[in-house]
Specification:
- By secondary structure, the protein is mostly helical.
- It has helices at 2-20, 22-35, 37-40, 50-65, 76-92, 99-122, 126-152, 157-161, 168-188, 192-211, 215-231, 236-252, 255-262, 274-292, 303-306, 321-352, 361-380, 390-405, 421-424, 426-434.
- Helix 7 crosses helix 9 (168-188) and helix 16 (321-352) packs parallel to helix 18 (390-405).
- The longest helix has 32 residues, at 321-352.
- The chain is globular.
- Residues 408-419 and 427-435 have low confidence and may be disordered.
Length: 435
């Protein structure tokens, strides 16, 4: 019953609020994309076009209210790569042998890319950044809570059934992307309740990744931890938080989890687990497709259709986002798609530098959230095919929002004081740097 009430109330509230405040409608759209009410509560929520209704209200409100700021700043290049990738996919969709499969991919990508652009035009203050970050963490945190509830109830639903139409590997990578945002929300929140909530959800996400037994998810979480060590503010309090998180993760990872993870690095063909070996073989076959079709690829959503040509069962996925994208979209499509994430990470990484001066410290905080989330995703996505997993796009949007608002940062004029005065005290920090 709670699922039905949640779905109907947020569908109605999101579509109506979107007519007057499009960004609020977008936040509900994000929550639905992560929680997936029809799959979270299949026994009570009937099939319906809930997200479409919310998106329609948001788009009508965006056109009607004209709440749009097209001064994208440093985020323009990142956004342009996503739009360019959508345009390239649309162009390729006219060519493949199966038009239905190709246009289905374009349709799913457009449902993410168009709201992405609309929402970016609506981000005009730090308030929107915080709202988006908390929406992602609360939605992904609730998913992690439900998965942990099943696990402690005696059934590891994540490992054996996955979540929301995704297998354990894809669901684990979604959790990897969210854990960095949750951790830095805990680090930078001033309210004790908000800090406790963020850290609790980060712990639930981390534990879910461990009992998913996804090697790609575990590797992504390790990468997230390493990047966190690099970008975290260098203070005793933040180091204590980080050390505590690492110790907690080491305690939760039992011997079965560690043994499963170490099979990732076995090099011998005789000792390597069959599923790990099959991934290597799939990647090799995708590379062969890329060499044979370097520009156009085999077509959007078409690798599963030609997998049988290489001896795989019909419909077999490549188990690598990057290799499958290259096989289907050619080197141009792969370059556009991968550059969308890498350029976002690079520009945000510069924003996290101690020498970077920002008007609002939350621009730096948001950059740290997005950098850690996207870094873990980029690495772990090598092990699973999930072209339209929504949370990485929304994490990139969070970073683009910070880039759009942080137009005044000037690394060349900063002074190395041994600490970040703007992070410590915005008003006095700015005065100190200008003196």
């Amino acid at each position: 019953m709670k699922g039905l009430l949640f779905t109907y109330l947020l569908t109605g509230g999101g579509s109506l609020s979107g007519l007057f405040r499009p960004f609020y409608g977008f936040l509900v759209y994000v929550a639905f994309a992560i929680i997936k009410p029809e799959m979270m509560w299949p026994w009570s929520v009937p099939k319906g076009r809930y997200s479409f209704v919310i998106a329609l209200g948001m788009l009508l409100g965006w056109l009607w209210t004209r709440r749009a700021n097209f001064n994208f700043g440093k985020s323009f290049g990142v956004m342009a790569l996503l739009v360019g990738y959508l345009a390239w996919a649309s162009f390729l969709a006219f060519m493949p042998r199966n038009q239905i499969m190709a246009w289905d991919y374009v349709d799913r990508l457009a449902r993410i890319a168009i709201p992405f652009v609309v929402a970016l035009t609506c981000i005009t203050s730090t308030k929107e950044l915080k709202q988006l970050a908390w929406t992602i963490v609360l939605a992904q945190g609730y998913v992690a809570y439900e998965l942990n509830s099943y696990y402690f109830g005696g059934y590891n639903v994540l490992r054996y059934a996955g979540f929301g139409g995704m297998d354990n590997n894809s669901a684990a990578i979604a959790l990897v992307t969210g854990i960095g945002i949750a951790f830095f929300l805990g680090v930078h929140s001033t309210s004790l309740f908000e800090r406790a909530t963020a850290f609790l959800f980060a712990a639930l996400m981390g534990h879910a990744i461990l009992f998913s037994f996804s090697r790609g998810g575990m590797l992504g979480m390790i990468v997230t931890g390493i990047v966190t060590c690099v970008v975290i503010p260098k203070r005793p309090r933040t180091y204590a938080m980080l050390i505590g998180t690492v110790c907690l993760g080491a305690m939760l990872a039992g011997p079965e989890v560690r043994e499963r993870f170490m099979t990732t690095f076995v090099k011998s063909g005789e000792e390597r687990e069959s599923s790990a070996q099959s991934r290597v073989d799939l990647w090799s076959d995708c590379w062969d497709v890329m060499k044979k079709n370097p520009v156009l690829g085999c077509g959007p959503n078409h690798w599963p259709l030609i997998a049988s040509d290489y001896g795989w069962p019909h419909g077999k996925e490549a188990h690598s986002l990057w290799m499958q994208t290259g096989a289907e979209m050619g080197f141009i499509g792969l370059a556009l798609y991968l550059s969308f994430y890498l350029l976002c990470i690079f520009r945000l990484w510069v924003l996290t530098w101690k020498s970077s001066v920002v008007e609002d410290p939350w621009h730096k905080h948001t950059a740290r959230m997005a950098v850690t989330g996207l870094s873990g995703f980029v690495v772990s996505a090598q092990f699973v095919s999930l072209e339209t997993l929504e949370i990485p796009y929304y994490t990139a949007l969070l970073g683009c929002g910070a880039l759009k608002l942080a137009r005044a940062w000037e690394p060349a004029q900063a002074v190395d004081l041994g600490f970040d005065p703007v992070d410590a005290c915005p008003a006095r920090g700015q005065a100190l740097l200008s003196s």
